[in-house]
Design goal:
This protein has about 110 residues and is of the alpha+beta class. It is built from 4 helices and 2 strands. A hairpin with a 5-residue loop joins strand 1 and strand 2.
Length: about 110
């Protein structure tokens, strides 16, 4: 979206060489400056979704809905979790491909 493009132009990424590169030891930090000039910093040690801090089923489904909703129509987004869950026993992947194809790619 255009509002995000304007925001991205104001984002600066810095790599901190003191942060371990292995997933067990790494952490991340974000700092922002408010319109009033106040600096706010937050640090995340174990992000949600990493193997020892997994998302709940509902969080995972919500993340899927938000992401898939950018390219699939609402009926596809609603149907997809059930189709994906049944993949192991499905006779083929035809329904999966139909549900996961963007409109016009069918």
């Amino acid at each position: 979206a255009s509002d995000m493009q304007g925001l991205l132009a104001r984002v600066e990424l810095r790599v901190d060489p003191t942060i371990p590169s292995d997933l067990d030891g790494m952490w991340m930090e974000v700092e922002t400056t408010t319109a009033e000039g106040r600096r706010v910093r937050a640090r995340c040690e174990r992000p949600r979704g990493i193997w020892d801090n997994p998302l709940t089923r509902e969080e995972l489904l919500e993340k899927f809905r938000q992401t898939a909703g950018t390219v699939l129509d609402p009926s596809q987004v609603a149907r997809a979790p059930e189709v994906i869950q049944g993949l192991e026993t499905a006779p083929n992947v035809t329904e999966f491909l139909a549900v996961m194809s963007s409109p016009g790619q069918g």
